[in-house]
């Protein structure tokens, strides 16, 4: 799987009146190198149309495109991957549908889940929610940076820290060993999306 470090997930609720493709293009220009379509309210048709537009955008900029939840949509638009949670189709079942080339990311909130995902062939895992977040309805309580340290020490596949990560606390997450960070609201809700992503990328590359 191509390397990535700044992971933007769509959050249309945070940018009313702005087109999701335009917001994600600003994120990419600012340095986001992986984009995920996450739509909890749209119809299947609406999700497909957004996925088609974001697939075109991510091909134009040569960044990874992931679809959350909707395996069928991901396959229909030839997305690079899917992201599944602990209550979604198990990875082994999803792999039977997608075949070997599809990137499969798995959410994890405990080291046992991380070890299981690694054993079952996940291409990457999400590790979170690091801090409290209002961007996910059924979110578990914060796992804190202690979980990041544990995943760093015990898991060999790529992992991305997620959950309540902002410019003011991202250094804590990096100091805990994360090399990849994922956000919804800090990016999608920003007045200047490109500038926020540039700032985050600078932090990822070692600047403060
Ligand atoms: C990179 C990344 N990590 C975690 C999640 C959460 O996915 P999931 O547990 O399926 O919850 P929803 O996002 O579907 O509410 C993610 N989407 N991306
Ligand atoms: C979608 C999601 N998944 C999480 C997990 O822990 O699996 S936390 C989360 C919400 C991330 O949004 P924000 O960057 O606005 O906090
Ligand atoms: Mg999901």
Automatic annotation (TrEMBL):
Mg(2+) binds at residues 69, 88. Residues 6-187 form the Thiamine phosphate synthase/TenI domain. Binds 1 Mg(2+) ion per subunit. It catalyses: 4-methyl-5-(2-phosphooxyethyl)-thiazole + 4-amino-2-methyl-5-(diphosphooxymethyl)pyrimidine + H(+) = thiamine phosphate + diphosphate; 2-(2-carboxy-4-methylthiazol-5-yl)ethyl phosphate + 4-amino-2-methyl-5-(diphosphooxymethyl)pyrimidine + 2 H(+) = thiamine phosphate + CO2 + diphosphate; 2-[(2R,5Z)-2-carboxy-4-methylthiazol-5(2H)-ylidene]ethyl phosphate + 4-amino-2-methyl-5-(diphosphooxymethyl)pyrimidine + 2 H(+) = thiamine phosphate + CO2 + diphosphate. SUPFAM superfamilies: Thiamin phosphate synthase. The keyword Metal-binding applies. The keyword Cytoplasm does not apply. One of its GO terms (cellular component) is cytoplasm. 4-amino-2-methyl-5-(diphosphooxymethyl)pyrimidine binds at residues 36-40, 68, 107, 136. Keywords: Magnesium, Metal-binding, Thiamine biosynthesis, Transferase. Pathway: Cofactor biosynthesis; thiamine diphosphate biosynthesis; thiamine phosphate from 4-amino-2-methyl-5-diphosphomethylpyrimidine and 4-methyl-5-(2-phosphoethyl)-thiazole: step 1/1. Its cofactor is Mg(2+). 2-[(2R,5Z)-2-carboxy-4-methylthiazol-5(2H)-ylidene]ethyl phosphate binds at residues 133-135, 164, 184-185. Its EC number is 2.5.1.3. Condenses 4-methyl-5-(beta-hydroxyethyl)thiazole monophosphate (THZ-P) and 2-methyl-4-amino-5-hydroxymethyl pyrimidine pyrophosphate (HMP-PP) to form thiamine monophosphate (TMP). HAMAP family: TMP_synthase. Belongs to the thiamine-phosphate synthase family. This is Thiamine-phosphate synthase. The lineage of its organism: Bacteria, Bacillati, Bacillota, Bacilli, Bacillales.
């Amino acid at each position: 799987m191509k390397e990535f470090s700044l992971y933007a997930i769509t959050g249309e609720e945070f940018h009313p009146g702005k087109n999701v493709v335009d917001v994600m293009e600003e994120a990419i220009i600012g340095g986001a190198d992986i984009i995920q379509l996450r739509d909890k309210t749209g119809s299947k048709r609406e999700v497909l149309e957004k996925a088609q537009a974001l697939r075109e955008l991510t091909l134009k900029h040569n960044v990874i495109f992931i679809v959350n939840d909707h395996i069928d949509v991901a396959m229909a638009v030839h997305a690079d991957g899917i992201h599944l949670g602990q209550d979604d189709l198990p990875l082994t079942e999803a792999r039977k549908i997608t075949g070997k080339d599809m990137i499969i990311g798995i959410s994890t909130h405990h080291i046992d889940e991380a070890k299981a995902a690694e054993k079952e062939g996940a291409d990457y895992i999400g590790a979170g929610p690091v801090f409290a977040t209002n961007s996910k309805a059924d979110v578990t309580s914060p796992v804190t940076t202690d979980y990041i340290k544990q995943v760093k020490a015990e898991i060999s596949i790529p992992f991305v820290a997620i959950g309540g990560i902002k410019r003011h606390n991202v250094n804590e997450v990096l100091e805990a060993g994360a090399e990849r960070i994922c956000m919804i609201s800090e990016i999608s809700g920003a007045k200047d999306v490109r500038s926020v992503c540039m700032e985050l990328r600078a932090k990822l590359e070692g600047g403060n």
